[in-house]
Amino acid sequence: MIAKTRKVSDYKQLNTELPTVRFVDPERVYLNLTTSRCKEYTLDVKAGDHVKLGQIIGERDGCFFRQPVYATISGTVEDKVTMIDSTGIDVECITIRNDFKDTYHESITDRPDSVIEKMTQEEMVEIIKEKAVVGLGGSGFPSYVKLATEETIHTVVINAIECEPYLSSDYRLIKDQPDEIFQGLSYIMQAVNAKQGIIAVKKTKTELIEVLEREAERFKHLNVSIAKLGDYYPQGWEVETFKNATGIKVPSGDLPMKHGLLGFNVSTTESIYEAIKHNLPITKRYITVNGDGVKFPQSIRTRVGTSVRELLKLCDGFVDDADKLELVIGGPMMGTAVKSDNVVVTPTTTSVLVFRPIEYKEEPCVRCGSCVYSCPVHIQPVSIMQAVKRNDVEAIKGLEANKCIECGLCSYVCTSKIPVTDYVKDGKKKIG
User: Fold this and answer.
1) Which tens digit of pLDDT belongs to each residue from 19-76?
2) Which of 153, 245, 327, 409 is 20 to 30 A from 336 via CA?
3) Count of CB atoms within 10 A of residue 340's CB?
4) CATH number for the domain including 261?
């Protein structure tokens, strides 16, 4: 069986070599009405109503922002259900039964290039806000907030690193739709009047580099270059990407915009293109289903709102002893372990990883310093852990726990198998 014969290092390569599976016609979608940021919502439809693809069916309340909820298929509204989202929390979802017609809402119309070329920053920002485009690298932060910057931007950096093991959703997007990425980049550069664009990718991804450089020839007028960066973790961390792609080091606590830099994930960039050119919200995305706990890993193009259970069926299900497997939404380093497969695909769901459990015995800290040496933001995870155990909030603040990017390296390198990252996360919560 594939899960028993392949080495861990082979899984990402397998996902990049296999063709993309298209699963864009699920019988039902489940659209999350709540998120970790948005606990309240209004719903404009009821059970029995017919909705069209791209129709607004409600609105999430995120305190400082409001976010429309869009139907990602056409069909009939059914009951509300509770599912798990990409952050691992229970969310309230509205169910839509697919009519398999993909009838678009009247608002979904293409904008001519002649119109787009004359659009202002404010007009583009309004579209991105209206279409609820968010950071698709996993942050889920509203993209219009970035795009609305009043700072002078000289360089737009598109992050195509995808540095975590097992993940290949951005890889597949670049291979399949490079033109849309460059078009999205052109819209961003136009909005902020940037003179230079950079697409950052691992230097080991020679196939992607060939695709991107060929596309750059078609978009010579944009002044876009391909930055070939080192293949290590956490190269995809925004600050690290900026430093290696541009030579500019953004100090901790500074916004990149203050240094003339604006960054977007590659999938977010493609969604910006869809919003501005086609007036489309995020209705589909690439998902990696991988790990030694599924029989046949796949790269899948699917609808937002699809049940993860359906995606796992496309991978021939779990290996033996499914009740003992561990399910992670996101990457193995920064992803979230979830309690069941009752998970819904949201715009920020990059992957579903299934692993056979490995039992570790946690030992006392031996003060080896491995967590300190490996920390990319140069804090002291072990000292923060001790302060958390003492509930010493002032010490946690003094140790600058808020600098932590939750990359997971301190836990990964710990010789005593202590979940150090979890302690630092708790410390961040204690100081707010």
Assistant:
1) 899 999 999 999 999 998 889 999 999 999 999 999 999 999 977 778 999 999 999 9
2) 245
3) 10
4) 3.40.50.11540
